[in-house]
Design goal:
Elements lengths: L1 H11 L13 E10 L2 E15 L6 E8 L2 E8 L5 E8 L28
Antiparallel strand pairs: 1-2, 1-5, 2-3, 3-4
């Protein structure tokens, strides 16, 4: 009984067209930012290093390097503040979490590109 109710609430809070991307992909995340009474879209570009959760609580982590410093940001997949997620490049990975990229610098951060068939 409770699981059925929880599933209904979970499905009601999910986006119908959730973005499709994998771990290791380089993505542009377009998020809505409110500044006072104005709304604008901010783009965060980086590599998806992990996904966690399920259903409406699913999150993904994007990492990029800014001025020599690593910056990570977590986004909810089904958030209404996420306008869209564009996949720029698909990377080949053999891990579910790419936390080892935190220790790498420069060209070592790059991943091999996945061939598209």
């Amino acid at each position: 009984m409770n699981n059925a109710i929880m599933d209904m609430v979970d499905k009601a809070n999910q986006k119908e067209n959730a973005p499709q991307f994998d771990i290791g992909d380089t993505v542009d995340v377009h998020s809505k930012i409110l500044e006072g009474n104005k709304e604008r879209i901010q783009v965060f570009t980086g590599v998806v290093i992990g996904r966690s959760g399920k259903g409406a609580q699913e999150m993904f982590t994007v990492r990029r390097i800014v001025a020599g410093e690593g910056v990570e940001r977590k986004f909810p997949v089904h958030s209404p503040r996420i306008e869209k997620v564009e996949v720029k490049r698909s990377g080949v990975t053999r891990r579910a979490k790419l936390y080892f990229l935190r220790d790498r610098v420069g060209k070592a951060v790059r991943l091999k590109e996945r061939r598209r068939v």
